[in-house]
């Protein structure tokens, strides 16, 4: 076997070979650098994408922010909004601010003139109650007993007139329904300054017709809710009439709560039915069921349900819709 010996001294590289080697080394170094740079840029790009997605989720889920949409989508959305306004405008005007609703036109007036108007309204309501045989407490002033012997200031008359209008509407509906008695009508004292947050609540009750608390202003000043509380005695049919007329009234009334106490809290027992029906004549005791049914009861018609007397306490809010409504 022949042996070969490589003599490095005798190995000679041409300039071209040396250039190729150097170029390969440079390319390798550049490739490694490019990989290192691009991998870092990719990580940064991924971080930016994650941040952008988080921002999108934040702005799309929070109603405080608005999502930026394309021009065509924004135009379509605006057209839909205008179409919806056009469809709702007649309903809103007829329901929330009908021409019969005078709340927004009420302004302050001379205190002496306001006191005269109050006296006239109270007198008219008491006369109507007497005409319809509806009982009211002695010297009943329909929630305004504070002003039996005094007058409000000029600035107070505006809100007092709105409350008087609401009470007049509610009381008239109850009187026309011919309930048995009006026991109480209470209102919040809107004319009094509201306590500061540190005071911790409303003032102490001064009169029996004072309802604790104040009116509520909705978000965006859309409406103001003036609360009233009424107590009255009625039967189920009276109550049905009152609720129906509150709904049909040109003023917006919302029944917030309703508590009812019946004078017949227990249902009749089966063993009481014969006694309630009355004893049939002795001549038909042993006859057929049909002949017994044709006989007249000795006690007259008896009602198992629906004829009880109800003591009712209702919290009713009058809504003053104050938002800017679209034109018809």
Question: Mind explaining what this structure looks like?
Answer:
The chain is an alpha+beta fold and 328 residues long. Among the domains are: 25-59; 94-193 and 207-265 and 305-321, 2-Layer Sandwich (Alpha-Beta Plaits), CATH 3.30.70. The chain is 42% helix and 13% strand. It is built from 7 helices and 5 strands; from the N terminus they run H-H-H-H-E-E-E-H-E-H-H-E. It has helices spanning 15-61, 71-96, 111-131, 157-176, 236-248, 273-277, 289-294; strands spanning 181-187, 216-217, 223-234, 252-262, 310-321. Strands 1, 2, 3, 4 and 5 form a 5-stranded antiparallel sheet that branches. Strand 2 and strand 3 form a beta hairpin. Helix 3 packs parallel to helix 4 (157-176). The protein is extended and about 125 Å long. It starts with 14 loop residues before the first helix and ends in a 7-residue tail after the last strand. Residues 198-205 have low confidence and may be disordered.
For the structure shown, list the relevant keywords.
single chain, 5-stranded antiparallel sheet, Alpha-Beta Plaits, about 325 residues, extended, about 40% helix, alpha+beta
